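hiii, so i know i said id send this last week but things got crazy w the move. better late than never?? heres the sequnce for the chain we talked about at the cafe, plus the structure i predicted for it. fair warning i was half asleep when i ran it
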Amino acid sequence: MRRLPEPARTGRWSVSPAVGAMIAATLPTALAVAALAPALVTALVEPYQILGHIWDGPPAALLGARPGVVDGGGNVLAALLLTIAAGLAATGFSGGRPARAIPVVLPGAAITLLITPISLGMGWPHSTMAALAVFTLAMLGLALTPPPPDAEVARSLRLTRILVFGIGMAAGGAGLAGALATRQLTLFTLGAAVGVGAVAALGGRTQNARILGWLFASVMAQTFVFTTGLVFGLAPAWSAFGVLAVGAILLLVAALLPRLRRPEAMREANTVEWSGYGAALIAAALAYDSPRHIAALLAAWGAVLGMAAVRPYRNPTERRTLFWSAVACEIIAWWLLMALADVVLPEAYTLPFAALALLVGLLELRHRSDLSSWVAYGPALVAAFLPTMVIVMAGNDSPVRQVLLLLGGVATLIFGSNRRQQAPVIIGAVVTALAALRALFSFGPWLVLIPVGLLLLAFGANNENRRRTQERFRAVRGMR
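okay and structure toks below
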């Protein structure tokens, strides 16, 4: 009798073992969560009562045992057993990769931690510390473990990671609300949050995890500094300096951390840098009603921007933008300080701008040798001479101002002639001529300096042969 051939064996499961185990565990898990729901609601919802009584201590309802949720540890034992079972199953199905089992274990572990103080009759602050611990474990567990690849057949791990994120956010909100009961616990919570964000930012396995870590650490650090000022009774304008310091640290990290210099880390580096700029805006908002503090903040931020501009991989446009932004911050700060000190001398406002603009022009010439002298020196020279020239020509001047203007024009003329720069030569010659003519009609005691100015104008404009006038003008036209 002929035997029928047996069907071929493929050696594969029609359903993934991990998916099958998850499906089989769905009903028991749902029943367990339903049984634990009162304790979970108490742990995640009731702390928000503190929002109406910040730093006034915890409400009496949060201090003692809540009826209906204290069971002597039965709920805790049930949740713990579920967590252990999930951990064993996840370890078995992880294919020798324990990092993949961690997100599977975290939901059960988080629920166990959340309900333990409530089920054992322990109120605040134990419930708040448990919520904060759950937030820390959930967020670091996600940030420090690799995500599953997109091609994985079983999508349970990705769904589990989303669940862990949701549990972590809910626990973090409840923990922060509970921490607002006292000043000390608030400062501890914010400081620990900075540490959690920093660990995720420095050790995250994906760029998205690191970016979220930087953002979270930045926001928590600024909040921590501001809250510290409130605890010690400082005005918001003084706390602004701490917030600005956080922004400066972020810019320094973006410039000095080797990992952020790689081309593939550009998004992360930009996140860190823009977080620093955001801190500067928040600092300015905190001190908006105090011009003196605004001036000090601008002066400090200008120095920080100047350091940030030297980051090695910046393109020329970014570097110029940061340099000019630093100049603008310093100039506005100087103007505010002069106004607050009731200084009415115009040069006190114009000369610092001219000096900083000249510095920027010199730095630009070092990087761009083809740059025109009108672009490099023009703004600085116009800012330095034009206001004083207007005052002198209007007659509202003093002999000292006339002499200083004349000497400044001569010095600029000599500098431009030696460096073969067209802008200093022309601007210096115009200033010297006008200042000399004004002094000629003023009949002041400084008339003796006019021959000196005219002599320098005639013989110091260039280094060419004075007997070849045509060649001299051609040399001026050939300047940059």
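btw The radius of gyration is 35 Å. thought thatd interest u
miss u guys!!
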